Amino acid sequence: MKKELETVKADLIKAQDELLQNSTEAIGTEPEETSAETVLDNKKYSRTSPAVIGDVIITEKEDWLIGKVKYEIELQEVTIGEDEWNIVKEANMFNEEPVEGKEYILAKFRVKVLETEGDEPFELNHAMFDIVSGKGIEYTGFNVVSGLNPDLSADLYKDAEHIVWTSFLVDKEDSNPLAVIDRKSENEIWFQLRYQFNLPQ
Asked: Given Cys at both, which of 20, 103, 139, 169 links 131, Cβ 3.0 to 4.6 Å?
C-alpha cells in the first residue's frame, strides 16, 4: 500500500512539473514575426512627417464602391520648374498654362493592389488627392491635366501594379507643398513634393 501511494505521489509530482513547464513555455513564447508586407504603416506619414521619395507605404481602406481594399503606394519621382509646363503642353495642347506666380509639379507614383473584396477593381483617380500649402492652406479648385502617360486614372485588380504620373498646381513661392491621398480619413497619407539638394561646389 505504501509503495502504491509513493507511485501515485511520484505521478502527481511529474504531472505538476509538466504543467508548470508548459505554462512557462506558453508565457515565454515570443509572438510570431509580422511580415513587412502585412504592416499597415500609413498612420506615420502625417502632414508634419510626410512620406518622401522612395517610401513604400501599405494601407487599407473601405472603398465606398467595392468595400475593403489593401494597396501599396510609393512616390518615385517629382519634377518642378519651367520645363513642366512644356511637358504638360505637349501632353495635350488644351491643358491650361499656369497663371503668373503658379507652377506645375509633376509626380510619379507606383501603386500595387494587394487585396480587394470579391475581385472587384480598385478605381484609381486624381480626385483621391488634395494639395495643401506649406502654411497649411488647401489649394482649392480642381486642376485637370490630360494626356500624361501613363495616366493616373485606371481600374486595378488584385496584384495589378501601375506606375503613373499626376500633376499639381501650386504657388511658386510655396516652399513646402504637400500632396495627400484620402485626406480627412483615418487612412490619409501625406507626401512631400519639394526637395532641397546640396549640389557640389
From this structure: 139
d(CA 41, CA 72): 10
Which pLDDT does position 17 carry in this prediction? 53
**Which residue is associated with the grid cell 505521489?**
9
Q: Grid coordinates 486642376 are at which residue? A: 143
Laid out side by side, the sheet with 161-171 consists of 56-63, 67-80, 102-116, 161-171
78 and 195 in contact (C-beta within 8 Å)? yes
**pTM summary value:** 0.74
- pLDDT one-digit tens code per residue, 144-164: 788 888 888 899 999 999 999
CA distances from 112 to 70, 72, 151 (A): 9, 5, 15
Helix (H, G, I), strand (E, B) or coil at 165: strand
In degrees, to the nearest 5, what angle opens at C-alpha 120 toward C-alphas 114 and 122? Answer: 60
Amino acid identity at 189: I
What b-and-e string marks burial along 109-126, b requiring 16 or more CB atoms within 10 Å of the CB? bebbbbebeeebbbebeb
Distance of CA 132 to the CA centre of its chain: 17
Q: Which helix (H) or strand (E) holds 189?
A: strand 189-192
Q: Is 171 exposed, middle or buried (0-12, 13-18, 19+ CB in 10 A)?
A: middle
Residue type, 169: L
Higher pLDDT among residues 3 and 118, named by residue: 118
In this structure, what DSSP letter does residue 43 have?
G
